[in-house]
Design a protein that fits this description.
Pfam families: FA_desaturase. This protein is an all-alpha fold. The protein contains 18 helices and no strands.
Amino acid sequence: MTAPNVIDQPRPSPQQEPAARTASTWHSQIPDDKAMLRAAAELTRDIATARAAIYWPDMLGSAALGYAALAGAILLDSPLAALACGLLASLALYRALLFIHELTHIHKDALPGFRFVWNLLVGIPLLIPSFMYEGVHTQHHARTRYGTIEDPEYMPLALMKPWSLPVFALTAILLPPALLVRSALLVPLGVIIPPVRKLVWERASSLSINPQYRRRKPEGAFARMVFWQELGASIWAIALVAASIAYGWRPLIIALCVVSLTAFLNQVRTLVAHLWENDGEAMTVTAQYLDSVNVPPPALLSPLWAPVGLRFHALHHLLPSMPYHSLGECHRRISAHLGAGSTYEQASYKGLMPLLTRLARSTMRAG
């Protein structure tokens, strides 16, 4: 899907009117800002190590709070108290789940045991083992794939019809029951029916949004990891269904509703992670950066809807391996070094609602 009358316009400068900045985009081959790329690399080398003292308490605390609140949502008699617990559970589990993003980028030896424990406590219980993101998300960062048909995490949403945005967001609500069916039924069925196994792997084994993406068969050590994670998720899913048949469906339905809200929050965050204005061409690193979004301080609510460093998503595309706890300091250093009016500053936005409004206006122009 293309929109030459929009895509071929140049990127507005910071001095132009805000309305003009909202109404236009830039060509995918905007030249790289080498000063920005150099500053990003040189100013942040000393804070590029993942710190176990931050990762472990954050992940474990988020998971513990999420499960405790989920128990309250299931067990409390007061509807208001149960609803409050459900909302808290959704936010806490959202943060715990998003450590899957860190797992795709940190070195395999950086945090011994972290991947295993995260899968045991978060990935498998919520039926989203880390293999569903590992080996997929890195393709989104590939220099020649970002924004193209080969990018599993890109759709030109800004160039699509206005109705595509609510559909995109609301379909996330169906993810938890779909994952339950996948692990409890389709994966075991695939053991005895190879075509089902092939279909499930290609089409339903990755956290991707590009409907044309097909996942390649796993190999080597990764295939062994997939086997054990799939086995754990299937055993857990079958146990959930069996327990619900034996003792009642209410706890499982409440849990699915809580995780559906988590999936919806993540889908809304995804809507504003990028500007989604590329129509399929390969992009320079700077163009990829400008098609991505930072929502830095003083935005107060961004840590809630974009936790674990994802409020610095554009910066993350400059420094993919930078641990989430260092991104705030990276942003401060680069901003101070490059100053106001720099290319770096152009990827910063004020908050969720201005970004959603910008995206909706883009779809209305495209439509």
